[in-house]
Structure to design on (195 residues):
């Protein structure tokens, strides 16, 4: 689909097929239901204003490059995904979006205003401006797995305004109870948790 403006439509991205949205595709209050994985999707010039992007199977290590999300509700499971753009906000952006119904781990939000963005509830956590707390993180004594993940999260450029992680995943990997992980995380300046 390209070079058109659609309103209040439902678009399905099917599993095991290549789905290309764009260039010059605008979706207003549309619903995108995706069964596709990262290898089967490309968005070279997609603008979504309002509506829902629902990722039905876990999407891993995908950069939403070429996508402009404005007031979109994102649902589904995202692991290692990037929203926005490292360098050029004219190429990709995320603004005033609702991630509260999504499951997210190792995801980054780039060059955006976090004030208008809703994040998922606990066990998701959001580390705001991770590059700014790097010194704090590396000076602490963390349990090994937690320290390694926090080292990765904070070893970032300033364009990364937030990293979202899942304490449930950290609990499995570290063998620590989630309550203890929460206590550890809450010592980090700029950490945000929604109950």
């Amino acid at each position: 689909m390209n070079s058109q403006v659609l309103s209040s439509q439902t678009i399905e991205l099917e599993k095991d097929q290549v789905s290309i949205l764009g260039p010059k595709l605008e979706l207003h209050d549309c619903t995108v239901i995706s069964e596709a994985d990262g290898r089967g999707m490309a968005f070279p010039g997609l603008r979504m204003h309002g509506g829902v992007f629902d990722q039905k199977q876990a999407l891993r290590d995908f950069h939403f490059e070429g996508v402009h999300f404005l007031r979109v509700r994102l649902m589904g499971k995202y692991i290692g995904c990037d929203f926005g753009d490292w360098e050029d906000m004219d190429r990709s952006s995320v603004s005033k979006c609702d991630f509260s119904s999504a499951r997210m781990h190792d995801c980054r939000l780039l060059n955006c205003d976090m004030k208008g963005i809703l994040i998922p509830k606990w066990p998701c956590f959001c580390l705001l401006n991770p590059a700014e707390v790097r010194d704090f993180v590396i000076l602490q004594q963390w349990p090994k797995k937690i320290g390694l993940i926090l080292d990765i999260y904070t070893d970032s450029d300033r364009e990364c305004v937030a990293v979202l992680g899942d304490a449930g995943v950290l609990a499995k990997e570290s063998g620590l109870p989630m309550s203890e992980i929460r206590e550890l995380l809450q010592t980090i300046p700029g950490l945000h948790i929604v109950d």
In short: The CA atoms of residues 171 and 178 lie 6 Å apart. Residues 144-154 form the longest helix (11 residues). Helices lie at 134-139, 144-154, 167-174, 178-185.
